[in-house]
Amino acid sequence: MKTCGKCGQSKPETDFYKRRDTKDGLQVCCKQCARDYRETHTVKESNRLSDHKRHKTPKGLVERRDQYLWRRYALTYEKEQAMLEEQGYKCAICDTDVSAKRHRVDHCHTTKLVRGILCDGCNVGLGRFKDNPETLMAAADYILRFRAYIPFGE
Question: The whole model's pTM is what?
């Protein structure tokens, strides 16, 4: 006889599933409690999957984007769309069309204020220069200095 850790009833050992890593070689809870747990867990899992499927719909994608923007930048989806429209669906730096591609919300890492919408390349570039205007100007000067085409390897 063994007592179930879930329901507290004493039951024969045949009412418990086997488990190699316990001292007695049996699970802590009886087969009935294990079945009950699986049923409730399966229901929760199916609800989670339906939530996951919901996020694949156009409305769900907007909801997820809205939640992300709010958590990250205190910005709403509507405000992001207004910024895109104001910028003509172009990157604020290079004027690349960002309507079809993924765009990035640019923000100041010190003040956390949103500055505009950028293409991925410009956003990564600013990040690599750590938003330092002096470094960016030095890089621009460097490029202008070596603007003449010199074949590589000659």
Answer: 0.59
Residue pLDDT, tens place only, 122-139 = 999 998 998 899 999 999
CB within 8 Å of 79: residues ≥ 6 apart: 69
Q: CA 140: distance to chain centroid? A: 33
CB 84 within 8 A of CB 103: yes
The answer to whether the beta carbons of residues 10 and 2 sit under 8 Å apart is yes
117 touches 106 (CB < 8 A): yes
Give every CB contact of residue 145 below 8 A, 6+ residues apart in sequence.
Answer: none
Amino acid identity, residue 59? K
CATH class of domain segment(s) 58-145: alpha beta
CA neighbours within 13 Å on the CB side: how many for 138? 6
Treating both helix axes as pointing N-terminal to C-terminal, what angle do 77-86 and 58-73 enclose, rounded to 10 degrees?
90
Domain chopping of the chain, boundaries: 2-52, 58-145
Token reading at 94: 């290079």
pLDDT tens by residue, 21-68? 888 999 888 999 888 877 776 655 555 556 666 667 788 788 888 888
